[in-house]
Amino acid sequence: MRPDDTSSSRDFPILISACLLGVRCRYDAGERGCPALVRFASSARVIPFCPEQLGGLPTPRPAANIVGGDGRDVLSGKAKLINARGDEVTDAFLRGARESLKLARLTGAKRAVLKDKSPSCGLKTPHCESPTGSGLGVTAALFILNGLKVIDIKPESDFPPPGFMEFLGH
User: Is 119 exposed, middle or buried (0-12, 13-18, 19+ CB in 10 A)?
Assistant: First the structure.
């Protein structure tokens, strides 16, 4: 199947980090749109979402880091999120992750394309304290824990990334 052949992508919904689709929802009120992903989204059943906004955080907002572990540790209560002003924003990140999971369940989405390096969405976010220097974001951890298939992408990378067709189930 060719990367632009998305006919079966219409068969099921896919959650996509809204910033990757050009929505200005990032902490800095910017976006990290990936033009090829936007083209893919136009022919697929896409649900754009931003866990940080769903958690009640404003845009723009101070950047946040996970202190004491990664997203898995936040979910288990061992770590917290502190923003650049020194405010704890753990509850907002947890609320956003839970609302994102609720959105997945309501729509039947079993896959999510997430923004890399995000303390919410990243699969290898550097915005955490882990022995390896990177770890799961909060929403990514909750999705994985609940059986969603997830990938994260760099907006500047080629799309589709290696393994994308397998991710879609092709």
Answer: buried
- 50 vs 14: CA distance, rounded Å: 14
CA distance 47 to 103: 9
Q: What contacts 11, CB < 8 A, 6 or more positions away? A: 45
CB 119 within 8 A of CB 125: yes
66 Cβ neighbours under 8 A, 6+ residues apart: 73, 74, 79, 80, 81, 119, 125, 127, 128, 129, 135, 137, 138
> Which CA distances in Å does 126 have to 51, 65, 67, 90, 93?
18, 9, 11, 17, 16
Q: How far apart are CA 124 and CA 133, in angstroms?
A: 9
Predicted TM-score (pTM) of this structure: 0.91
Chain position carrying tokens 């699969």: 123
- Summarised one tens digit per residue, pLDDT across range 1-19 is 344 444 455 678 999 999 9
Q: Letter for the amino acid at 140? A: A
Burial class of residue 166 in the structure, from the number of CB atoms within 10 Å of its CB (0-12 exposed, 13-18 middle, 19+ buried)? exposed
